[in-house]
Amino acid sequence: MSSSEPRSRTIRSATDAAGRAGDAAKGAAGKAQGAAAEAEQHPAASWVEGIGQVANGVVHLIIGGIALSVALGAGGSADQSGAMRAMQQTPLGGIALWAVGIAMVLLALHALVSAIAASRRDWKDALKHAGRGIAYAAVGSTALVYAVGGSSDSEQSTDSISSDLMATPFGPWLVGAVGTVIAGIGVYFVIKGVRRTFLEDVSPPRRFRRLVEVLGTGGYVAKGLAVVVVGVLFLTAAVQHDPEQAGGLDAALQSLTTVPGGVFALVGIAVGLMLYGIYCFARGAWSR
Questions:
Q1: Which residues does 90 contact at the CB level (< 8 Å), separation at least 6?
Q2: What are 226-236's pLDDT values in tens digits?
Q3: What integer pLDDT is reported at residue 36 of this predicted model?
Q4: What is the DSSP code string of the chain?
Q5: pLDDT in tens, 241-270
């Protein structure tokens, strides 16, 4: 027996083991996708989607209201942390925060299930669902932090992330890449509003369709423009090598008050964010 024969058998065994492991992984993935597809069609899923979208609408209404107060000179923090603080100060603040937090976390889980189910059909669709899930989870976790008596500052978190990225060898490039991605997401929202492709997510009765179109168009365009400004702040930080130039939603909206005509733009975005909040109510009631 040549010395190459044992080696050949070892290679074949390793190849066979790798093949069996690959088949097992594919089988597990297929089962997960099938289970996710079944869960997505469960009647409870529509309730989760509906309640979650209502909670999402409440948050956007509050952020829009705070943004409007900023435009009028009253101040405030126009982001999810500011929305939670505003909610906390209401008579039923604690209950409201728990309700919003739980609803948004469940909505995030629903989006994750949808992403797994969609991965069988279209990876682009799966990525969109996953992105939504991450965004919903961020809002839900912030609400729960405030519900248990804690606090969170979205702007400080953003500054910390940009500072950590800037401290790496390729810091400015990484911050610039983040800004480009964020701005791209904003452009996607604007296009979705202008083309009205959001109607793929909601199916209102015919007599309310025009109203939902107006709400969705104005809401998505306004939200998209706000996100684009966030991306621009990151790009500015990358160009100037200054992480403090980066900022979240509140910094983006606040920055509009410092440029000519920016207050009028801020009023428009604030109203649009509130329209988006009302659109979320419609989506909760008539989600596809």
A1: 96
A2: 999 999 998 99
A3: 62
A4: --THHHHHHHHHHHHHHHHHHHHHHHHHHHHHHHHHHHHHHSHHHHHHHHHHHHHHHHHHHHHHHHHHHHHTT-----SHHHHHHHHHTSTTHHHHHHHHHHHHHHHHHHHHHHHHHHTTT-HHHHHHHHHHHHHHHHHHHHHHHHHTT----HHHHHHHHHHHHHTSTTHHHHHHHHHHHHHHHHHHHHHHHHHTGGGGSB---HHHHHHHHHHHHHHHHHHHHHHHHHHHHHHHHHHHT-GGG---HHHHHHHHTTSTTHHHHHHHHHHHHHHHHHHHHHHHHHB-
A5: 887 787 788 888 888 988 888 899 999 999
pLDDT recorded at residue 7: 59
Domain segments of the chain as ranges = 32-152, 156-272
Residue 26 has pLDDT above 60, yes or no: no
Residue 42, both tokens = 């469960």
Residue 33 structure tokens: 């996708």
